[in-house]
From TrEMBL:
Residues 6-61 form the HTH cro/C1-type domain. Keywords: DNA-binding. The keyword Nucleotide-binding does not apply. Pfam families: HTH_3 (PF01381). InterPro entries: Cro/C1-type_HTH (IPR001387), Lambda_DNA-bd_dom_sf (IPR010982), SinR/SinI_dimer_dom_sf (IPR036281), TransReg_Diox_bact_type (IPR050807). PANTHER family: HTH-TYPE TRANSCRIPTIONAL REGULATOR, METHYLPHOSPHONATE SYNTHASE. PROSITE patterns: HTH_CROC1. This is Helix-turn-helix domain-containing protein. It comes from the Bacteria.
Length: 136
């Protein structure tokens, strides 16, 4: 299964075995063994290198039904790309983006929870969150 998926993605990208082997830093013969299922237990490090160059995830190569990675410019319109570029130019880090994403997810979860709780109990509940910061 791993071999078939690697071969299929490799061919879709138009890579030869030699090209993918060079990109991933593995020998051509080893990659060929993987694709032909002669070697059916490659290391996660090797799979990570191969997956990266095939624009997919290790999980997909291992059999999960995840779609291959999609390039950002195929998904985000120009307005989104400009917003992201501006945020990065203004000093926003990956950690900041992750924190913002987590905040949005938490807020949506809370809204959904309160809405479903209100339906079940006929009233909304509020919750108090206490954040404790200790300096060393």
């Amino acid at each position: 299964m791993i071999g078939e998926r690697i071969k299929s993605l490799r061919e879709k990208k138009g890579y030869s075995i030699t090209k993918l082997a060079d990109l991933a830093g593995v020998s051509k013969s080893y990659l060929s063994y993987i694709e032909r299922n002669v070697q059916n237990n490659p290391s996660l490090q090797v799979l990570a290198k191969i997956a990266y160059h095939l624009d997919t995830h290790i999980e997909y190569l291992l059999g999960q039904e995840l779609a291959p990675k999609v390039w950002v410019d195929h998904v985000l319109d120009e307005e989104w790309q400009t917003l992201i570029r501006d945020a990065v130019d203004e000093g926003m880090s990956k950690g900041d983006f992750q924190a913002l994403k987590d905040l949005v997810r938490s807020t949506k979860w809370k809204e959904e929870y309160l809405a479903s709780d209100a339906v079940h109990k006929g009233k909304k509940k509020s919750s108090n969150i206490i954040i404790l910061h200790i300096d060393h």
